[in-house]
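TEACHING EXERCISE
Course module: macromolecular assemblies
Task: Read the component lines below, then compare them to the predicted structure of the full complex.
Student: A.B.
Group: 4
Components provided:
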Amino acid sequence: QVQLVESGGGVVQPGKSLRLSCVASGFAFNRHGMHWVRQAPGKGPAWVAVLLSDGITKYYADSVKGRFTISRDTSRNTLYLDMSRLRTEDSAVYYCGRGYDSNGYFPNYWGQGALVTVSP
Amino acid sequence: DIVMTQSPDSLAVSLGERATINCKSRQSVLYTSNNRNYLGWYQQKPGQPPKLLIYWASTRESGVPDRFSGSGSGTDFTLTINNVQAEDVAVYYCQQYYSVPYTFGQGTKLEIK
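Instructor-supplied answer key:
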């Protein structure tokens, strides 16, 4: 069955960097687009980024563009989110999601999330 | 960005009754070349990630009870839950995937009356 397990969350100061990982199993990792979606406490989900199955095409929300980088290692079936110049408003649970198909579109499977807290 | 607006923000329904949640997009999410609406619905319970219920506006995800149904086209969409059960208490979100950034509605909280 499809499994997605995030790790790498924690408490970090503003301006610092953090890398999230998402280990995928139970499906052909290189055939699906993969998403990161975040959810601040008490708020709704907010889409962050998607990496299409070609491993090259990436799209980002404006709020993270230039600061966050989505990537993958197909040999490790792992999706990454490198976050730099973190801000307090980046505090959230970060979910990775398997895209519906090679184009990603919508996540049809989600991990349990990794909590990122950006605090002085 | 395509703004998604849901209504109502919350609703209370008696067990066995019907719940109707609306979602409106500021611009059409219908891709005319394939006649597909790039719109999905999610259910989220406390402490859990969102769960996909409906995609392409009306296609039920595998394993989702058939009391959940989606309808609509263009800019106006509806999630209908027939015969509401206690386990349906959750927050429901619509999401458009017509164009990046893929935006969500603000959510509708369903409670039992």
